Amino acid sequence: MEARELSREEVLAMVPQQAPFRFIDEIIELSDTHVMGRYTFKPDESFYPGHFPGEPIPPGVIMLESMCQVGVVALGIYILAKELPPEEVVKYKTLFTDAQVDFSGIVPPGTTVNIKAERVYWRRKKLRSKVEMSLTDGTVVASATVSGIGVKRD
Predict the structure, then answer these.
(1) What's the CA gap between 141 and 49, in Å, rounded?
(2) Active-site amino acid positions
């Protein structure tokens, strides 16, 4: 096979994180320079009983993970597939390298969020993106600059 452009569905299928640690339900938009994904924080998520009892909200680290899965992992898979055949792309795992994040809102259980990412740069299999998580009404609840690098596993 040859390197090629993957569909949104193919990229989502190649994201290595799986339940209960996949925080992308669908990819809405995808190009060389941006991606938009969606996730619904289900009311029965495993982290709610301890964060916070009686007033559950997703931990910031989980919100950041969702933003990274969309803005670094999914977008990175799409970009890498234009350089390598799909059977080679799946041999790479994304290691997060750094993040600067600001949280500005609460995501109640059962809420659907949109995650938009814009590519800042891609070189040597390292991707940096500016990512924003918002409620469906457009209210921004988190923004970040995140980076990750693709590391080949045989």
Answers:
(1) 21
(2) 51
Contacts of 18 (CB under 8 A, 6+ apart): none
Bridge partners (DSSP) of residue 133 are: 115, 142
Residue 31, pLDDT score? 97
Q: Is the whole model's pTM more than 0.90, yes or no?
A: yes
Q: How many helices (H) and strands (E) does the chain have?
A: 4, 6
Return the percent helix, strand and coil in the chain, to nearest 5: 25, 40, 40
Over the stretch 43-55, which tens digit does the pLDDT of each residue have?
Answer: 999 999 999 999 9
Q: Are 115 and 131 in contact (CB under 8 A)?
A: yes
- CA 22/CA 134 separation, integer angstroms: 18
Q: What is each CA distance from 29 to 19, 74, 75, 88, in whole angstroms? A: 22, 11, 10, 24
User: In the chain, which stretches have pLDDT less than 50?
Assistant: none
Two tokens, residue 75 = 């977008």
The answer to whether 123 and 144 have CB atoms below 8 angstroms apart is no
User: Within 10 Å of residue 106's Cβ, how many Cβ atoms?
Assistant: 12
